[in-house]
Design a protein that fits this description.
Elements: H1 8-29, H2 33-49, H3 51-62, H4 71-77, H5 79-97, E1 107-111, E2 115-121, H6 125-130, E3 135-139, H7 146-152, E4 166-170, H8 178-189, E5 193-197, H9 206-212, H10 214-219, E6 222-225, H11 229-236, E7 241-247, H12 250-258, H13 261-270, E8 278-282, E9 287-291, H14 298-313, E10 323-329, H15 335-348, H16 359-369, E11 374-376, E12 379-382, E13 402-408, H17 412-426, E14 432-436, H18 439-445, H19 447-455, E15 460-463, H20 467-472, E16 477-479, E17 492-493, E18 495-497, E19 507-511, H21 519-522, H22 541-553, H23 560-569
Parallel strand pairs: 4-5, 4-7, 5-6, 7-8, 9-10, 9-14, 10-13, 12-13, 14-15, 15-19
Antiparallel strand pairs: 1-2, 2-3, 3-19, 8-17, 11-12, 16-18
Helix pairs in contact: 2-5, 4-22, 5-22, 14-15, 17-19, 22-23
Length: 570
């Protein structure tokens, strides 16, 4: 298969855009830290101004009715994380302006294996109220000292005058904040000017993104283009481009790096890439959700079934970190009740149009591999996986509303040990893993649970939370577990987000409450959080998402009562 060829007039247009960026690199290099922060603050303000148009454009291409509760997903995964991300990054730049490290305002502790843990959540009194009971840390690799963490935080902004050329960002087509956040990370963390090539699925946001990034476009540091694979291929192989970043699939990554068809496969085997420049990536994978056996009440079973269903169905199932395989205990006395509730939630959750290209074909692929799978509306539930020969569910990212169940033997500790090894050794990808455990089980496991979290080789590990919250936390690192290479890329190379600008983080660890309020308080859990707004079963998600976005634009005490009232009705 030959690479797509770009029309000559289109190639000339892209050449001119790259020439603009080469000139813009000088303007970016001349910007002081204060000027860069001010540009970021203008992006923040523009995001607030254009948030409504952003959400409407997202709803249009995802075919979501404007009165659907699911519109909350577009608020909380679109303008909201850009607002929180720009604010957090501006705070880090201000610290550098003042001669401080970006981590000086954070608590540094320890994690298993001789790791430094940077506590990023909660960070403010607003965090403690709006995300009551949730916490997050970024773990550094073993052996990295506290002094090193402090000294190296800031990345390329520690030498802002040393720019690193022109980079291409190949934007995602699913979550609308990804392209903007990726551009900002390339520009600020790596100090390179950027041309963003939109995924054609997201072309409807071209105008909104242009307005949001206008301060950086006017400077000459950013350009946005549309087009198909021909434009992307031309840009990534252009001699003036020094770096490529992609959010997508491992297949797309390999097509860029090695080419397509038999020739591309041969080049990969021989270690002879076509792409003669550095590439970083976030590529998804098959995310497991490990449900540790324990003494759950009927209310616990229902709530956690909603939690697991959300991990699969959020954004229609088109998330790189969507939960695809639920790992449960075959000896768990409540297994059947949990599965009953899971089937019920999957069947009753709001239906939505399959907007992402190829979704129906991937659903048919799953049904072909597992003839006994259940059709639950537009969803597929695969039960009864053979632990010894589970088939493609553990190795094929379906990127569609397909959920599988894998049963493993053992009580809490033995089950967890087996589940950790299975997740590490049999699942494709290392982007995110979810662990769900009853507080009594957590207490019973003691330090062994922290060791299990440390043993999981994933870029984000959650306990009683969804890895999607790691994506939404601006100061968290987001990406695959470190160590992948272009010829075995798995979930990608490098990280994004990381507004504290940590150098070489290993993973983010997120912890949440097992129960929603008020049941959490009745059982001694210090959490006021009701059903989270990202749950697909949340009835007021759209209102709460809009209110949270408005708050992120201008944090203030007076906005909290409406947020709490909406969240409690959800």
């Amino acid at each position: 298969m030959t690479a797509p060829v770009l029309a000559p007039d289109r190639a000339e247009g892209l050449d001119r855009i790259l020439d603009d960026l080469i000139r813009g690199e000088s303007a970016w290099a001349a910007c002081s830290l204060a000027e860069r922060r001010e540009l970021l603050e203008r992006v923040h303000a523009a995001t607030a101004t254009w948030a409504e148009a952003w959400v409407r454009a997202a709803a249009a291409y995802k075919k979501l009715p404007l009165d659907s509760p699911l519109l909350g997903e577009e608020w909380t995964s679109g303008p909201y994380p850009v607002l929180t991300g720009t604010a957090a990054l501006a705070s880090s730049i201000r610290a550098l302006e003042e001669g401080r490290s970006p981590v000086d305002d954070f608590t540094l502790g320890s994690a298993p294996g001789g790791r430094v843990a940077v506590r990023i959540l909660p960070h403010s009194v607003y965090d403690r109220l709006l995300l009551s009971g949730f916490g997050a840390e970024v773990w550094m690799p073993p052996g990295v000292s506290v002094d090193t963490v402090r000294r190296q935080a800031g990345l390329a902004l520690r030498r802002p005058e040393r720019t690193t050329g022109v980079g291409v960002v190949l934007g995602a087509g699913n979550i609308t904040s990804i392209p903007v956040l990726d551009v900002l990370y390339e520009l600020y963390a790596h100090n390179r000017v950027v041309v963003l090539k939109l995924n054609p699925v997201m072309d409807g946001l071209y105008d909104v993104f242009g307005k949001v990034l206008e301060p950086l476009v006017e400077l000459g540091a950013v350009r946005i283009v549309t087009g198909g694979a021909d434009a992307g291929t031309y840009l990534v192989h252009h001699p003036e481009v020094r770096h490529v970043h992609i959010t997508g699939s491992a297949l797309t990554h390999d097509a860029i790096v090695f080419g397509t068809g038999a020739e591309g496969a041969a080049r990969k085997r021989e270690g002879k890439p076509l792409l003669a420049k550095e590439i970083t990536s976030e590529l998804g994978g098959v995310s497991p959700t490990i449900v540790v056996p324990g003494p759950w009440s009927e209310a616990d079973l229902r709530f956690q079934a909603e939690h697991v269903a959300t991990q699969r169905l959020h954004n229609g199932g088109y998330n790189c970190v969507a939960g695809q395989v639920v790992v449960i205990g075959s000896d768990w006395p409540q297994k059947e009740r949990f599965l009953h509730h899971l089937r019920t939630v999957l069947a009753k959750a709001p239906l939505r149009t399959a907007y992402y290209p190829g979704s129906d074909d991937r659903v048919l692929q799953a049904l072909g591999a597992y003839p006994n799978a259940r059709r639950l509306g537009d969803r597929v539930l695969i039960e009864g996986l053979d632990p010894h020969e589970p088939g493609p569910a553990l190795t094929t990212e379906y990127f569609a509303p397909v959920l599988a169940v894998l049963e493993l033997p053992g009580e809490a500790q033995d089950f967890l040990d087996t589940a950790v090894h299975t997740a590490n050794d049999q699942f494709a990808g290392t982007l995110g893993v979810n662990v769900i455990a009853h507080p009594r089980t957590i207490k019973q496991l003691g330090p062994a649970l922290d060791l299990a979290i440390a043993e999981l080789r994933y870029g984000t590990v959650t306990l009683n939370a969804w890895t999607g919250l790691g994506y939404l936390t601006a100061t968290a690192s987001w990406g695959a577990f470190p160590g992948h290479t272009i010829d075995d890329v798995q979930s990608g190379i490098g990280v994004v987000h990381n507004a504290v600008l940590l150098d070489g983080p290993e993973r983010t660890v997120v912890r949440g409450p097992f129960r929603p309020a008020p049941r959490s308080l009745l059982h001694g859990e210090p959490s006021l959080a009701p059903r989270p707004p990202w749950f697909v079963t949340n009835r007021t998600a759209a209102t709460t998402g809009r209110l949270l976005t408005d708050f992120a634009a201008a944090p203030r005490w007076s906005a909290l009562p409406k947020i709490f009232a909406s969240a409690l009705r959800g």
